[in-house]
Amino acid sequence: MSGALKALLGIAAAGAIVSAAFAFLIVGKKNDIAAERDTVKNKLQTKETQLKKFETDLKAKESALTEKESQLSAATTKAETLQSSLASAEKKASDLDSSVKDAKAKVVDAEAKVQKINAALGGEDPATIKARALKAQEELNAVRSEQRILQDQLQSANAEVQRVTLQLRNVGTGVLPPGITGKIETVNKTWNFVVLNVGDKDNVVRNGVLIVYRGNEYIGKVKVVSTEAHTAVADILPEWSKGDIQAGDDVLN
What we know:
The protein is of the alpha+beta class. The chain is built from two helices and six strands, in the order H-H-E-E-E-E-E-E.
């Protein structure tokens, strides 16, 4: 074998070694890149999961905020309505007071007519005098009846003024007058609230707290969030619960 051939074989062997080394390095680098890609992919999936959870939590908070804003708007509207009702009741009471005074004046006038007719009995025809006396007495009875009706209406109007004034004063404060009793009509366990069969007309106000009983057993407490004339919606207070609240349970304050 000539020296040139040996040199060529040496060069070829060296090239093969270099190629093998490069191939080994490339395979190693490829594996490193694949591992890094998998790591990045896993991190990306984790971030996507976190992002979806964040979006879900955000929607839930936005929904809760919308609900609270709706409750605040309803309470504001209720207060404005009560204020208008109070003004109307006060005007009605004032009008009825004037009517009662007018009716009293009519009674005085009718009584004066009766006295005048009785004083003139000696100088007129008995039949005429009797007819005039009967007519005057009928007028007096009618006026007295009207006075009683107006007096009753005035008392009712004054009672309504007091009721609306008390209700307006207690809106949003949670202060309930003593003696409120009612029952739970429905229970929504998903949203943790109940519907009561008592409301505005029963002096129930927003933020008022009622105790729940079943027979003689204490069950828990509920807090009023909105009211209508004879119904109310109240949140269940979990920190006060001793059992599951059911439809038909009694409520009182």
